[in-house]
Amino acid sequence: MESVNLLVKQNLILSYRTCGLLRNNKKVLLQIEDGNVLIPGGHVEFMEDSKNALIREFKEELNLDIKINEFICFGEFLINGDFNIQQLNTFYEASCDNLEIPQEGEFELKDSDGKMQKFKWFDEDEINKLELEPKVLLDIIKGKQIENKHFVVNE
Q1: I need a labelling partner for 68 at 20 to 30 A (CA). Which of 18, 19, 62, 124 fits?
Q2: Model confidence over 15-74: pLDDT tens digits?
Q3: Is 14 in contact with 6 (CB distance < 8 Å)?
């Protein structure tokens, strides 16, 4: 599992994450954490590239050997608060030839650290009902093209 690599200076945090969309039978696999719906993935380790990090994260959390098919976009989240966070994110389409996980509904799995992780296959109707912030995440899940393959969210 991830040993989170963050750069911290006073009240500033720089975080680098990678996320992957895995689709099967017109459904997309998303993670549910503390009631929030997330695109699966995790932090990129120091001196690791984002593709290999995503492959590692899917192996650690779902015990899946994925392939990276396509770069979707790069996103920057600038979050102002007690700590100012700049989170850099890569988003990829992924595939898996051997899905040895439930292929319907919601399920939980123990990750490589023994922590329970919750996932769910969402169909198009369920995706359309999601209220994700920022809205660009919903566009990514729906497979819409992101202008210039780059976005910035300043909160």
Answers
A1: 124
A2: 999 999 999 999 999 999 999 999 999 999 999 999 999 999 999 999 999 999 999 999
A3: yes
The letter for the amino acid at 20 is G
Distance, in Å, from the CA atom of 81 to the CA atom of 148, rounded to the nearest integer, reads 28
For residues 97 and 109, what is the distance between their CA atoms, to the nearest angstrom?
A: 19
Q: What whole-number distance in Å separates Cα of residue 83 and Cα of residue 10?
A: 9
* Closest C-alpha to 40, from 70, 19, 15: 19
- Sheet strands (E) in the chain: 6-9, 12-24, 27-33, 36-38, 41-43, 67-79, 84-95, 106-110, 116-122, 150-154
The CA distance from 65 to 81, in Å, is 37
Lookup result for tokens 């890569």: 90
Structure tokens belonging to residue 130: 């999601």
pTM listed for this prediction = 0.92
The listed CATH number (3.90.870.10, 3.40.630.30, 3.90.79.10, 3.30.70.330) that belongs to domain 6-154? 3.90.79.10
Exposure on the CB side of residue 101, measured as CA atoms within 13 A? 27
